From TrEMBL:
Residues 306-315 have a biased composition (Basic and acidic residues). It is an enzyme of class 2 (transferase). It is found in: Cytoplasm. It comes from [Clostridium] aminophilum. Gene3D superfamilies: Putative methyltransferase TM0872, insert domain, Vaccinia Virus protein VP39. This is Ribosomal RNA small subunit methyltransferase H. Its EC number is 2.1.1.199. PANTHER family: 12S RRNA N4-METHYLCYTIDINE METHYLTRANSFERASE (PTHR11265:SF0), S-ADENOSYL-METHYLTRANSFERASE MRAW (PTHR11265). It catalyses: cytidine(1402) in 16S rRNA + S-adenosyl-L-methionine = N(4)-methylcytidine(1402) in 16S rRNA + S-adenosyl-L-homocysteine + H(+). Specifically methylates the N4 position of cytidine in position 1402 (C1402) of 16S rRNA. It comes from the Bacteria.
Length: 315
């Protein structure tokens, strides 16, 4: 099956990295290799790109796409939360740039059998890494009503989370919920018709919540930010594209904290907590897609790019 993948905020992301021809860069969410291709095209023979992805299919596509640069590319099947051990295994102690394109890639959504989309009927899967055993089906059929409510409320931000959880539990008491369309119909039944008519697809927020829960997406992001910043060489940059408010809030708040980590009371004349800034936020406001990009690639509409630059040489 052939997929068309359009990289979001492509020029903006690559430009944000201030690429040096002899630098070392890490693509933590390699996907189809769209951003990686543009990074590699700016590297000289001594430059290097490390691509990380947990999706076997993505690695196959990216490997093919990056063949013209195979002398400067290393691809590792892993989760970017393990970026430190990945780099240590390659004998790399510091890099000049790291970038992430979070969320689900276009070809993961478009491959119906992956179960990410609420628009096509497929088994409830949603695994980004097929080596994992737990699937979306397991969550839907095994989580308690309280756990389902918490997940849909926190990760889907759906005001009808409690009712959706109740409907899921009621439906599965008759038979296991097996497919995406079965779940979509259950969610529709939990949301009043007059509300469904005014909002987008009724299942969008619940599907997002299940995917985030299953793949631990927000935990992985939180657990990786400090490590990625610490791995940057002085002047190196961390560029992150987010697609919903939960991700963006984590990135925005963390960047602010590492820029101004002091916890001393404001009335103290000097800092005594000893916490030092690791750098500065390059993007005071996030970089957004242009009107032209949003027209040609509708999936870019919710994208935001934030950039942090490492400073100092005290590490």
């Amino acid at each position: 099956m052939e997929f068309k993948h359009v990289s979001v905020l492509l020029d903006e992301t690559v430009s944000s990295l201030n690429i040096r021809p002899d630098g070392i860069y890490v693509d933590g969410t390699l996907g189809g290799g769209g951003h990686a291709y543009e990074v590699c095209s700016r590297l000289g023979e001594n430059g290097r790109l490390i691509g990380i992805d947990q999706d076997e299919f993505a690695i196959g596509r990216a490997t093919e796409r990056l063949k013209p640069f195979e002398d400067r590319v290393t691809i590792v099947r892993d989760n970017y939360v393990n970026i430190r051990s990945v780099l240590q295994g390659l004998g790399i102690s510091g890099v000049d740039g790291i970038y992430l394109d979070l969320g689900v890639s276009s070809f993961q959504f478009d491959d119906a059998e992956r179960g990410f989309s609420y628009r096509t009927d497929a088994p409830l899967d949603m695994r980004m890494d097929k080596r994992e055993t737990q699937t979306a089906r397991d969550i839907v059929n095994e989580y308690s009503e309280k756990e389902l409510f918490r997940m849909i409320r926190d990760y889907g931000e759906d005001p009808f989370a409690q009712n959706i959880a109740k409907h899921i539990v009621r439906a599965r008491s008759e038979k296991p919920i097996e497919t995406t369309f079965e779940l979509v119909e259950i969610i529709k039944g939990a949301i009043p018709a007059k509300i469904r008519a005014k909002k987008g697809h009724p299942a969008k927020q619940t599907f997002q919540a299940i995917r985030i829960e299953l793949n631990h997406e927000l935990d992985v992001l939180r657990d990786s930010l400090d490590t990625m910043i610490d791995l940057l060489n002085p002047g190196g940059r961390l560029s992150i594209i987010t697609f919903h408010s939960l991700e963006d809030r984590i990135v925005k708040n963390h960047f602010r904290t590492v820029e101004n980590p002091c916890i001393c009371p404001p009335e103290f004349p000097v800092c005594v907590c000893g916490r030092k800034s690791k750098g500065h936020v390059v993007t005071r406001k996030p970089i957004l897609p242009t009107e032209e990009e949003m027209e040609t690639n509708p999936r870019s509409k919710s994208a935001k790019l934030r950039v942090f630059e490492k400073t100092g040489g005290d590490e």
